[in-house]
Amino acid sequence: MPEVSNTTIKHLKLGDLLEMTGQSPQHSGLHVFSKTPKKKEHGGHHIDYPFRVDAFFIIIVTDSSLHIKLNLTDYHLQKNDVLVVGPNTVRQFIDAGEGCCLTGIMFTPDFLMQAGISKKYYGAFDFFAASGSPFMRMEEAEADELLELISILHKKNHEGSAIGGEYQEEVVKHHFLAFMFELASLYRKSHAQEKIRLTRKEELMKRFLKLLPEHARQQRGLQFYADHLYVTPKYLSQTVKELSGKTAGAFIDELVMVEAKVLLGDLSLSVAQVADQLFFSDQFFFSKFFKNHAGITPTGYRKTF
């Protein structure tokens, strides 16, 4: 497999990621794992560059610590911490503490839909919302409950890929759903101070924030998001400002800047190529946009590395 730059955002499929990390595929669209991350210099398959993958990650640190970045935001996880990562999130594994061990599952959006979650339960999975917190700290007993469910799911998923059998698909999905609802219950308990029922304005903002990672690269205009949410740009802007203190445009620009900084970290790309990947009309307008938000030109930003 060809070498990749340490800072290029790679778009991977779940199968590609498993191959690159030395893991064998299990069920189609679902993979359960328990492993100790190892750096390349120690003979491991550590991926140290930013990437997206067409799958959700739910990671539990079972020993030591893990440092990971999501959309350039740092998360320092300790034992019994859980992290939920969506498919559109730029993720980068920075470092793992001595003896770090991770357990979790990876699954594609298609598998999630095929698992048969009724629409009336969609609201239970707040941790999938872009506006929700992807991080949760558990008590030892709570972590043990989740790990037990993962262990059973791993066994059934591995059996399903090895021997098949009547109703095997249903058995795997049953245990997957058991895990998901247990996680949802623990998440609600952990975030009990947050409102469970959203007002119409809160729901609008939640949907807006969920659209952003999917479209911010190509769509920086407020009209696009307003059209998709069936409201006027003025109403969307007022609602987001009222609930967050920031304008909708500021949220869009922040995400574009996340993408820009990561792409600029790849020194094999010219500034013009970065501008092109972010769908700016030319390098001049990209440089002007970047300086307005970062206070420094793209070239100047690269000199800070």
From TrEMBL:
The reply on keyword Transcription regulation is yes
Tell me the InterPro entries matching this sequence.
Homeodomain-like_sf (IPR009057), HTH-like (IPR037923), HTH_AraC (IPR018060)
Question: What Gene3D superfamilies does the annotation carry?
Answer: Homeodomain-like
Q: Does the keyword DNA-binding apply?
A: yes
Task: State one Pfam family annotation.
Answer: HTH_18
Domain (HTH araC/xylS-type) ranges: 206-304
Which keywords, in A-to-Z order, does the entry hold? DNA-binding, Transcription, Transcription regulation
The molecule here is called AraC family transcriptional regulator
Annotated organism of origin? Terrimonas ginsenosidimutans
